[in-house]
Amino acid sequence: MTTVSSSPTSFKLWLAAIKPPMYTVAIIPIWVGTAVAVAEQHLFNLRIFSTFLMAAILIIAWLNLSNDVFDSETGIDKNKAHSLVNLTGNKSLIFSLANLCLILGLAGIVAIAVWQQDVTVLTLIIGCCALGYSYQGPPFRLGYRGLGEPICFLTFGPMALAAAYYSQTQSWQGLLHHPIPFLVASSFIGISTSIILFCSHFHQVEDDQAAGKRSPIVRLGTQRGATLLNYATGLMFLALAMAISLGYLSPWVLLTFLSLPIAIQLCRHVQRHHNQPQQVSNCKFIAVNLHFLSGLLLGIGLTL
Ligand SMILES: C/C(=C\COP(=O)(O)OP(=O)(O)O)CCC[C@H](C)CCC[C@H](C)CCCC(C)C
Ligand SMILES: O=C(O)C1=CC(=O)c2ccccc2C1=O
Fold first, then answer.
1. Distance in Å, CA 25 to ligand 1 centroid
2. Mean pLDDT of 11-29
3. How far is the CA of 139 from the centre of ligand 1 (A)?
4. What counts of helices (H) and strands (E) characterise the chain?
5. ipTM surpassing 0.85, yes or no?
């Protein structure tokens, strides 16, 4: 078990275990789902938005803390010094903290349901959490079968954006009349979030194989994984460009293309280092930068 000291290395390990940049995955779907509502219905409720944002951050904290707990049970994290379970040596403490985050996060969503007298948002978010659990928790552990990316697409894309949209509008009317902006925006965010998860597998092939985890990179190999990353990234921006040129999205959405250099940096980096675990290990954080900047700009573009 790793001993906890107060050296700079230990500080870095704690930072890597807590993963502050990863919390942007909670912010962006709420931001973009709300932006679609603002663009279509000219509605914005700050109390609902800020409550939803805090609840989403707590749900991501649950997801990450419980991931370390469940992974400690399969042995997949035995070489991972920046696992919170390895750092503290106290699995039940981390599990209790995870459950506290989930309860507080869901309490925020329940508050929205009570204020609005409507359980639609709560139902969608409970669905997201159940799918998040099925990714990593027993007896499902669907991530071990390579199903993480489709789950990630569905939950962080259409489901989370629909929940954020509905929390502002309390109606599906606008979406039913003009579904294209929602479909394009939610696919964009679904793909960019799945790219983060996809990139997190490149440097872990050996540990994943040893623990019986059939991640997409274990299944495809790193070279084909790098090629698939190019296609997924290209598709994301191509769909956006088509929706803008066909007049479904405002030209302001072109602002999103300011994040294209990060997409190019990510694809080049992975193409060059896909089979060098040490060098490719930071690609997940390039993917986080791409997801954050593109999502931020997409939300701004939609509301202008
Ligand atoms: C915990 C996740 C990935 C870590 O996976 P892995 O074990 O391979 O990595 P480590 O090496 O770091 O251990 C993310 C998994 C995401 C999951 C497929 C879907 C989660 C859905 C969320 C609950 C949705 C929340 C929506 C929110 C905005 C309200
Ligand atoms: O620790 C990780 O690798 C991830 C954590 C996380 O919360 C997340 C959320 C959405 C997509 C990917 C990821 C991770 O890869």
1. 10
2. 96
3. 17
4. 16, 0
5. yes
Task: Read off the pLDDT of residues 142-199 as tens digits, 9 standing for 90 and up.
Answer: 999 999 999 999 999 999 999 999 999 999 999 999 999 999 999 999 999 999 999 9
Cβ–ligand 1 distance for 200 under 6 Å, the answer: yes
**Domain assignments of the chain as residue spans, ordered by start:** 21-75+83-303
Separation of 156 CA from ligand 1 center, angstroms? 10
CB 193, CB 26: distance < 8 Å = no
How much is the pLDDT for 78?
Answer: 86
C-alpha torsion sign, points 275, 277, 283, 284? positive
Q: Which atom of ligand 2 is found nearest the CA of 19?
A: 1
Q: Which atom of ligand 2 is nearest to the CA of 67?
A: 1
For residue 145, the one-letter residue type is: R
Task: State the fold for domain 21-75+83-303.
Answer: Farnesyl Diphosphate Synthase (1.10.600)
Asked if 285 contacts 202 with a C-beta cutoff of 8 angstroms, the reply is no
pLDDT band at 75 (very low <50, low <70, confident <90, very high): confident
